[in-house]
Amino acid sequence: MEFRSIAYLYDSLQGVAREIKGGLQVVSEEDLRDDCIDILIHNAVFNSNEEVKKTTRLVIKQLASSVGIRSASIQGLYDAMGRGECKGFTVPAVNIRGLTYDTARALFRSAKKHDAGAFIFEIAKSEIGYTDQRPAEYTACVIAAAIKENWKGPVFIQGDHFQVNAKNFAKDKDAEVTSLKDLIKEAIDADFYNIDIDASTVVDLSKPSVPQQQEPNFATTAILTNYIRANEPAGVIISVGGEIGEVGGKNSTEEELCAFMEGFNKALGSGKKGISKISIQTGTSHGGVPMPDGTIAKVKVDFDTIEKLSVIARKTYGLAGAVQHGASTLPDDAFDIFPKRTAAEVHLATGFQNMVYDSASFPPALKEEIYAYLKDKCADEKKAGDTEEQFIYKTRKKGFGPFKRKFWDMDEKLKLKIGKELEARFDLLFDKLNCKGTNAYVKQWVG
């Protein structure tokens, strides 16, 4: 049902919520969680009238606030981890590229079962583009999912890999920084209160010393961190992440970490709130490496590096620890090692995409349509020697944007089955990452 006007939108809330000064007050949570929130989020994503779409997103936020749901920064929890007052688990950060509302619902269901509070929803700069999900839409989907699943408390939404484009940076540094500031402002306005800056792409290995190599990275990260601080809402300290090693490159070192942090803190200025965590390279790559038959090559993660740099990050710089990217395609027996080696956060993306596409419940006709589209529109991305399986594996992430409506309009029974499969995966991750019961920590340190 598409709302024909803003008045029609508010009429749909009769018996569910009433208008009060400054927003809306829910009068029937049961009715809200029934069909109402499903209709609202559909309009927040697909309504043809931009003003109605924008207002529907605001309504979802107001309804969420009324029932005790809010977007929040994880900074307080990470500060406690940095002080050693909170430890023993690794926070999963989940990138959702498609079926966002349904996947977020599955994650909330799993979290409720395990009394988990320390988990993050995120979307990367690149994903915002090819999945056709601007920050305001992404937030609306996550918050609506929280309402649907009767979640209570803070929700952590993160801008992942807000990355500097090295070619654009070399051509016009100021323009590239300005483009990232624009994205950061859009994200903050959409209640992204956790943002990971990635300027590791401009590390200059041609320089003779490590501090000189890291200088473009830490200087740019400091500029963007100061911009975040100047634009964060009153009462909110946004959790900012930095990165010292481009994922897929050589493994990070203690010398690089210290060079980055010393340079960053100096460039940031005294008395300024810095970063809360540091992303490092330990041998993984985003999405994994597809073999000719489409399977994923086994990767050996350097857990010694994770532990060593996490310890230094906490003890010397007060950070929560090191962050592992590109982990979702690792074998199951790898995940319980992350908390044992004191990793602060682990980023998970492609594995969930794979679960959706490869599910027995995913409609074969839709998959064929998407793959035909990719073969036509992304043909120039096929490298010499790539098999069709490798090409499809590497490009099918780009099917989420053009086919967003068809993903959303899949048969509800099929989506429910896929959601149950995703929920089981989240169950495993909460167990392996030792995140069960972390709701108590979140209540203590975030509120």
Structural summary, described in words:
This protein is an alpha/beta fold and 447 residues long. It folds into three domains: 6-66, no CATH class; 69-355 and 413-445, Aldolase class I (TIM Barrel); 364-410. The protein has helices spanning 6-11, 29-46, 50-66, 75-82, 100-113, 125-130, 135-148, 166-171, 173-189, 210-231, 254-268, 303-317, 337-340, 350-358, 364-377, 388-395, 404-408, 412-432, 439-445; strands spanning 17-20, 23-26, 69-72, 91-95, 120-124, 153-163, 194-198, 239-243, 277-280, 322-324, 345-348. The strands form two sheets. The protein has an eight-stranded parallel beta barrel with strand order 4-5-6-7-8-9-10-11, surrounded by five helices. It has a two-stranded antiparallel sheet with strand order 1-2. Helix 2 runs antiparallel to helix 3 (50-66), helix 5 crosses helix 7 and helix 9 (173-189) packs across helix 10. The two termini are 37 Å apart. The model has no long low-confidence stretch (mean pLDDT 94).
- Helix content percent band: 40-55%
CATH architecture of the largest domain: Alpha-Beta Barrel
Provide the spatial order of strands within the biggest beta sheet.
Answer: 4-5-6-7-8-9-10-11
User: What would the average pLDDT be, to the nearest integer?
Assistant: 94
**Element pattern in H and E:** HEEHHEHEHEHHEHHEHEHEHEHEHHHHHH
Count of runs of 4 or more consecutive helical residues: 19
Distance between the termini: 37 Å
CATH T-level topology of the largest domain: TIM Barrel
Fraction in beta strands: 5-15%
Structural class: alpha/beta
Radius of gyration: 21 Å
- The tally of domains stands at 3
CATH class of the largest domain: Alpha Beta
Tertiary shape: globular
Name the CATH superfamily assignment of the largest domain.
Answer: Aldolase class I
Low-confidence stretches: none
Biggest beta-sheet profile: 8 strands, parallel, barrel
